[in-house]
Design brief:
With 241 residues, the protein is α+β, with helices and mostly antiparallel strands. Among the domains are: 16-105, no CATH class; 119-165. The protein is 54% helix and 20% strand. It has a five-stranded antiparallel beta sheet with strand order 3-2-5-6-7, with no helix packed on it. Helix 3 (119-135) packs antiparallel against helix 4. The protein is rod-shaped. Residues 1-7, 87-91 and 190-196 have low confidence and may be disordered.
Length: 241
C-alpha cells in the first residue's frame, strides 16, 4: 500500500513538471497599447501577460510610435526552498524570471540620451513639443498629461541640482564681496580727528550741521525779540492815546 502511494505521488509530480517550467510574466507600459516583442516576435500590446520558459532568459522590447524603445532582459533566477524535490528542481519549479512584472514608462523620442547641460532649455523645449503634439491632436489628453510627467521626472533631478549650484554660487559671491569690503576697511588709514589743523570729513559735516543749527537758533531768537519789541511799541502807543 505504501509503495502504491509513493508511486502515485511520483507520477503526480512528474505529470506536473510540464506545467511548472513556465512563468507568467506581465508587461505594462505608460502610455499603454504599445507593441511587445518577446525574443524578436510580436506577442501583443500592453498590458500583456505571457507564459514563458523560466529555464532560459528572454529579451523583451516595447515599441510605440513617438517614443523610444524600452528593452528588458528577463533573467532566470533560482529561489530554492529549504527542502527540494529533485524532479521539481529538474523541471525548473524553483526558478523565476526577473524582472516580473515589467513596468515601462516610455520616453518621448525627442528627449536626449542624458541631461548633462542646458537642462532649463531642454525642459522648456520638451514641454513645448509636447504642447504642440497635443494641440495638433496627435496625442490625447491622458497621454499628454503622462508625457509631461515623464519629461518633468526626466529633467527634475538635474534642474534641482543646477538650482542648488546657482544658490551656492550666489552665497559664495556674497561672502567674497563681504570679505573684500572688510579687507578694504582694514586697509584704510585710521581717522585721527584730534590732530591739530586736521578735521576728517565726518567731523566737517558735523561741524557744518552744528553751525547751521546755531544760526537757526540765533535767527529765531532775533525774530522773537523783534516781535516782542513791536508788541511793546504798540502797547506804549495805546497808553499815550
Amino acid at each position: 500500500m505504501k509503495k502504491f502511494f509513493a508511486l502515485s505521488l511520483l507520477a503526480l509530480v512528474l505529470g506536473a513538471c510540464g506545467s511548472v517550467s513556465n512563468d507568467t510574466v506581465c508587461v505594462n507600459s505608460v502610455p499603454a497599447n504599445a507593441d511587445v516583442y518577446i525574443d524578436g516576435e510580436l506577442s501583443g500590446k500592453t498590458p500583456l501577460c505571457a507564459d514563458l520558459d523560466k529555464n532560459a532568459p528572454h529579451e523583451v522590447v516595447i515599441k510605440l510610435d513617438g517614443y523610444k524603445d524600452a528593452n528588458y532582459t528577463l533573467a532566470s533566477t533560482n529561489n530554492p526552498p529549504f527542502v527540494k524535490v529533485c524532479p521539481l528542481d529538474d523541471a525548473g519549479f524553483y526558478k523565476a524570471l526577473d524582472p516580473n512584472p515589467v513596468d515601462a514608462r516610455l520616453l518621448p523620442s525627442f528627449l536626449p540620451e542624458s541631461t548633462k547641460e542646458n537642462n532649463y532649455e531642454g525642459f522648456a523645449d520638451a514641454i513645448s513639443k509636447a504642447n504642440k503634439l497635443f494641440k495638433e491632436g496627435k496625442i490625447c489628453e491622458h497621454e499628454y498629461s503622462s508625457m509631461c510627467k515623464t519629461i518633468t521626472d526626466f529633467y527634475a533631478p538635474n534642474v534641482q541640482e543646477e538650482m542648488a549650484q546657482e544658490e551656492k554660487a550666489k552665497e559664495e559671491a556674497a561672502k567674497a564681496e563681504a570679505a573684500a569690503k572688510e579687507e578694504a576697511a582694514k586697509a584704510e588709514p585710521a581717522k585721527v580727528c584730534e590732530k591739530k589743523n586736521f578735521r576728517c570729513p565726518e567731523c566737517e559735516k558735523k561741524a557744518e550741521l552744528e553751525a547751521q543749527k546755531a544760526a537757526e537758533l540765533e535767527a529765531q531768537k532775533a525774530a522773537e525779540c523783534a516781535k516782542k519789541a513791536e508788541c511793546e511799541k504798540k502797547a506804549e502807543c495805546k497808553e499815550q492815546k
